[in-house]
Design a protein that fits this description.
The protein is built from twelve helices and twelve strands. It has about 375 residues and is an alpha/beta fold. It has two domains: about 5-145, 3-Layer(aba) Sandwich (Rossmann fold), CATH 3.40.50; about 150-350, 3-Layer(aba) Sandwich (Rossmann fold). A seven-stranded mixed sheet has the order 9-8-7-6-10-11-12. A five-stranded mixed sheet has the order 1-2-4-3-5. Strand 7 (about 195-200) and strand 8 (about 205) form a beta hairpin. The two termini are about 30 Å apart. It binds nicotinamide-adenine-dinucleotide. Nicotinamide-adenine-dinucleotide (NAD) binds next to helix 4, helix 6 and strand 7.
């Protein structure tokens, strides 16, 4: 048995629920970290090798992200043991069983994460109703299709530029990862007249210092091909995307891609974290010590969860986009102002902002039960 209390602090977690139904093949853990700001939103992560510890850390990350985004929601997470690529019928059975087993835990709202998607959320809605990120046909806003997170990242970049000595118009951008987050970020920045000079996906990278055609790259991905198949540029190995000279480098793929051993290779002036934990804390500190701004993940990539929270309130796409823009511009400015004033890394300022908001919300509550 893991010593889960070793992870507890004055924010949480408030509940850790282990779900085990051998007859349904169901093994899962729900961590509700903190609900002072409202019922927790956080995704269901499905994989064979998840753990309670991972769930606790991810739930805390959601508490901070939701608080920083100014949402009336706390943070939580579910890990579900299993192969996400199992036959669809089996997966549906498992997700429905999971939803039922957590039917009465009203302080947790289901959402998708790695291994689950909007279809899984539709099954949850059918069982218990308490869920976000649904398919359009049942009232959802398809946030990956419309690029909610990329929209947010483009506004975060626009504000962060004010703290740099160059303009967004004509700035050279490199995006690592050309999926839901990366391609839409590239598209929205292209509209703001930034120039995409490098892009990578899991199969390779492409570089052209004169600029890449973002729409053509998106078409390539739609056709199931790689950005490296783009004809007018230099094909590179996937990880060589780190070495491309640019003004703005945007990780939008995997965790820990920049660490102490390779951070010195980055030739950028601004990093905007689209992926979750793409830089180790050591790498972020290295950049800070060299005067480079790095906007942390839970500030920069909150567009998706803001969209999900808006969907839960019954809002439409246009209202969701407007709210993402307003909240992320305000938060980015607040974090970068504090970081500048106190000469601290933006992550430190962001954590401070989020924890203060959670503690303030906690001070209004007598007892945190729904
Ligand atoms: P996705 O699966 O749609 O796209 C991932 C992209 O990264 C793909 O193009 C893939 O080929 C590429 N990739 C994978 N490994 C790579 C590597 N080693 N080098 C270069 N490219 C690589 O995923 P997504 O939804 O775009 O999410 C990307 C990241 O952003 C994840 O860390 C995710 O947790 C985070 N995130 C996503 C959202 C969202 O709204 N989708 C919100 C917040 C954070």
């Amino acid at each position: 048995m893991e010593d889960v209390f070793g992870f507890a602090d004055d924010l949480g977690p408030t509940k850790i629920i282990h779900v085990y139904e051998p007859s349904a093949g169901l093994k899962a853990v729900l961590v509700v970290d903190n609900v002072a700001k409202g019922p927790a939103i956080g995704g269901v992560r499905m994989a064979p090798d998840v753990s309670t510890e991972e769930c606790i850390r991810l739930a805390r990350a959601m508490t901070l992200k939701n608080a920083a985004a100014g949402l009336p929601h706390g943070g939580g997470k579910v890990v579900l043991y299993g192969d996400p690529k199992m036959p669809k019928e089996e997966k549906e059975h498992l997700i429905r069983a999971l939803a039922n087993s957590l039917r009465d835990i009203r302080e947790y709202i289901f959402a998708p994460d790695m291994g689950t998607d909007e279809e899984c959320m539709a099954w949850v809605k059918d069982e218990i109703g308490r869920v976000v990120a649904l398919p359009r046909e049942v009232g959802g806003i398809p946030l990956d299709e419309i690029g909610a997170t990329g929209w947010g990242l483009s506004h975060v970049t626009d504000v962060a530029i004010e703290y740099c000595d160059f303009k967004l118009e004509g700035a050279k951008v490199v995006v690592q990862g050309f999926g839901a987050v990366g391609k839409h970020t590239a598209r929205f920045l292209d509209r703001k007249r930034a120039v995409l000079v490098g892009a990578a996906d899991s199969q390779g990278a492409i570089h052209n210092p004169e600029g890449l055609d973002v729409d053509a790259l998106i078409e390539l991905k739609k056709a199931g091909r790689s950005v490296a198949d783009y004809p007018d540029g230099n094909k590179l190995d996937r990880d060589a995307v780190i070495d491309i000279e640019c003004d703005i480098w945007i990780p939008a793929a995997r965790p820990d891609v920049i660490h102490e051993d390779n951070v010195g290779r980055l030739k950028a002036r601004l990093v905007i974290e689209g992926a979750n934990i793409p830089l180790t804390h050591g790498a972020e500190k290295y950049l800070h010590n060299r005067g480079m701004i790095c906007v942390p993940d839970f500030i920069a990539n909150a567009g998706g969860v803001i969209c999900a929270a808006m969907e839960y309130q019954g809002a439409g796409e246009a209202a969701a986009f407007k709210t993402i823009e307003e909240k992320l511009r305000r938060n980015t400015r607040q974090v970068l102002e504090e970081a500048k004033g106190k000469q601290i890394p933006p992550r430190e300022a962001a954590v401070h902002l989020a924890v203060q908001r959670v503690k303030k919300a906690m001070s209004y509550r007598r007892w945190l039960v729904f």
